[in-house]
């Protein structure tokens, strides 16, 4: 089964103009599987492999650790993307997928930072291009409805460039309300920005790790795949 993250990546790269052959090569998938991910209305689907691959990181773990250490020592602007590290490993005979390297690197960073006792540095961008991004978060507000005090959950969406806000109140903070708020906000804005910025809200994030590493909720990822954000 392809995980949601891989299906989303395939669709985004194809939408940006990348060829199916190139996507299949970079992700170590067949072109048939890539085409199915692009054409399927679902964000998750099953496919049967004729041969189930064995774990391949093992013999290359020490080499991958060296590449990750060297990459971490570089300046932020000079660091290699994980696709490049996968390519370097493949040139040395590694036959595993990009996803295997990406998952290992994510665990490696978490372990390294925990061992070093480091906190992840925070960088907050202050300027945005029109249509580049939006922010979304929840708040709770105490209101009076029909003479009765009650607490409501309020969805806040805001365009990062113009700071145009959209606000809507709901009886609770659930995924159904999350999806409805996004649909109404995008209709109000007249379009969908290229990416979304979220806090670690429980309707989107399942687990939080060091730095930017997150495990997102499956249904939330399906929604972002639908809007291509």
Q: Can you walk through the features of this model?
A:
The chain folds into two domains: 4-116, no CATH class; 133-227, Nucleotidyltransferase, domain 5 (2-Layer Sandwich). It is built from eight helices and six strands, in the order ααααααβββαβββα. The protein has helices spanning 4-15, 20-27, 31-39, 61-73, 82-91, 98-116, 175-189, 218-227; strands at 133-145, 148-159, 165-170, 195-198, 205-208, 214-216. The strands form two sheets. It has a four-stranded mixed sheet. Strands 5-6 form a two-stranded antiparallel ribbon. Helix 2 (20-27) packs across helix 3. The two termini are 23 Å apart.
Give short descriptive properties of this protein.
229 residues, alpha+beta, Nucleotidyltransferase, domain 5, 2 domains, two-stranded antiparallel sheet, 18% strand
Supply the helix-strand structural class. alpha+beta
Strand portion = 15-25%
Q: Determine Rg (CA atoms, Å).
A: 21 Å
Looking at the structure, what is the overall shape?
Answer: globular
* Sheet with the most strands: spatial strand order: 3-2-1-4
Number of distinct beta strands: 6
Number of helices: 8
Number of domains: 2
Helix content: 40-55%
Which series of helices and strands comes N to C?
HHHHHHEEEHEEEH
Query: What is the CA–CA distance across the termini?
Result: 23 Å
Are there runs of 5+ residues with pLDDT below 50, and where?
Answer: none
How is the biggest beta sheet arranged? Answer: 4 strands, mixed
Mean pLDDT: 83
């Amino acid at each position: 089964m392809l995980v949601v993250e891989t299906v989303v990546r395939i669709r985004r790269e194809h939408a940006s103009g990348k060829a199916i052959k190139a996507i299949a090569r970079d992700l170590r998938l067949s072109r048939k599987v890539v085409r199915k991910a692009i054409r399927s209305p679902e964000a998750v689907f099953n496919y049967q492999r004729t041969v189930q691959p064995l774990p391949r990181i093992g013999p290359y773990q020490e080499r991958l650790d060296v590449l990750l250490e060297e990459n971490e020592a570089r300046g932020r602007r000079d660091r290699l993307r994980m696709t490049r590290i996968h390519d370097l490993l493949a040139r040395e005979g590694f036959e595993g997928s990009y996803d295997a390297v990406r998952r290992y690197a994510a665990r490696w960073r978490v372990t390294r930072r925990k061992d070093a006792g480091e906190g992840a540095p925070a960088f907050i961008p202050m300027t945005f291009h029109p249509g580049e991004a939006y922010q979304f978060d929840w708040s709770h507000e105490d209101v009076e409805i029909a003479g009765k005090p009650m607490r409501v959950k309020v969805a806040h969406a805001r365009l990062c460039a113009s700071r145009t806000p959209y606000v809507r109140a709901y009886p609770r903070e659930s995924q159904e309300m999350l999806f409805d708020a996004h649909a109404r906000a995008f209709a109000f804005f007249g379009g969908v920005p290229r990416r979304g910025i979220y806090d670690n809200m429980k309707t989107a994030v399942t687990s939080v790790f060091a730095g930017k590493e997150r495990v997102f909720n499956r249904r939330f990822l399906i929604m972002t795949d639908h809007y291509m954000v």
